Amino acid sequence: MTIHYTASIMTETLFTFLVVAGCYFAGEQKKYFSGLFFGLAFLTRPIIFPFLILLVLISFLPKLRHKWRSHLIIVLIAFFVALPLIARNTLLFNRITLTQSSGYGTNLLFGSIETPLWGDDVWSKVLKDPLTQPTLGLNEIEQDQLRMKVALSRISDNPVEWLKVRSKQYPRLFIDSGDYLLGARNMSFGQAITELNLLVIFVKLFFLIFSFATLLFFLIGIWIAGKDFLNLPYIFLFPYFMMLIHLPMWIDFRYNLASAPFIYIISTIGLIGLFQKAKHYQFKK
After folding, report:
1. In terms of Cα–Cα distance, which of 143, 84, 149, 137 is closest to 112?
2. Is 255 a member of any domain?
3. CA–CA distance from 2 to each of 14, 155, 163 (Å)?
4. Residue 218 parent element (H or E)
5. Which of 21, 39, 41, 257 has its Cβ near the most Cβ atoms within 10 Å?
6. Dihedral (CA of 234, 236, 241, 243) sign
7. Is residue 46 included in any domain, yes or no?
């Protein structure tokens, strides 16, 4: 999906490049370039806002306390880059508005609607739910505010059911079925087995196995790194943040695209670590 969407006009593609560049320059101690790229990422997707706050907060950790000045400069430059659009939106909507005026309520509401764990077109099914239908006479911002109220009401009325819904949706953040590559040939996995469509079966199985293998090596990489992840905070922090920020929100695998480069790095750490442990075990034996 990372390669496929490179040719698509969408925010996730540009956002991924800008975040990776921001983290790279932060790791290279080039705080001004890092702040610039994080600011451009801010203009692309406002989800980076809490990440920048988190970047400042981790400076209070004893091992990273010496970086507080650099982190603060990075965040201030990022806000300075995004400030013209923030000011424009605030004046336009008569309230403090970041680089995006809506979408939070929609994602929270969609995240409270039960969907199957595995499916080829879950998004279309959610859009057919009566709760997601647009209300006549309301603009996009008013519609999003209404959906926010409905979502919060649903969550507060039945928090246990909401947790069940989230437990079903959350794994979709890590599962890639490869459906976008099949185009008109795409069909459900059950139908593909019934019709013995080997192409569809192969694509879906390959992507499913690769998704689980990547997740497994990612977890092993985290375990191998242990407390040393603070030596590489910019690689580990962003995927942690993305996994956390999507806990209450609607989930689709493409939402995790920005984490993909970091996940692959950490997965490689896990794979190499396993290889080294196996080689060391054979040597001792």
Report:
1. 149
2. no
3. 11, 33, 29
4. helix 198-225
5. 41
6. positive
7. yes
Unique residue bearing structure tokens 């569809």:
200
**Measured between alpha carbons, how far is residue 117 from residues 69, 121, 167, 178, 179 in Å?**
44, 11, 9, 15, 15
Q: Is residue 196 part of a domain?
A: no
Q: Which residue has the tokens 């306390």?
A: 65
Nearest-angstrom CA–CA distance, 113 and 253? 17
Neighbours of 94 (CB within 10 A): 7
Intra-chain end-to-end CA distance of the chain, in Å: 42
Residue 120 has pLDDT above 60, yes or no: no
Query: Torsion angle, CA of 64/70/72/75, rounded to 10 degrees?
Result: -110
In the numeric block, which tokens belong to residue 89?
């939106």
Domain membership of residue 42 (yes or no) is yes
Closest residue by Cα to residue 232 from 34, 21, 24, 36: 24
Phi/psi at 98 (5° precision): -75, -150
Of the candidates 12, 22, 36, 15, the residue with the CA atom closest to the CA atom of residue 233: 22
Q: How many residues are recorded in the chain?
A: 285
**Encoded tokens for 281:** 């075990």
More confident residue, 69 or 102: 69
Poorest-pLDDT segment among 30-34, 38-42, 232-236 = 232-236
Report pTM.
0.81
Domain of residue 49 covers: 1-101
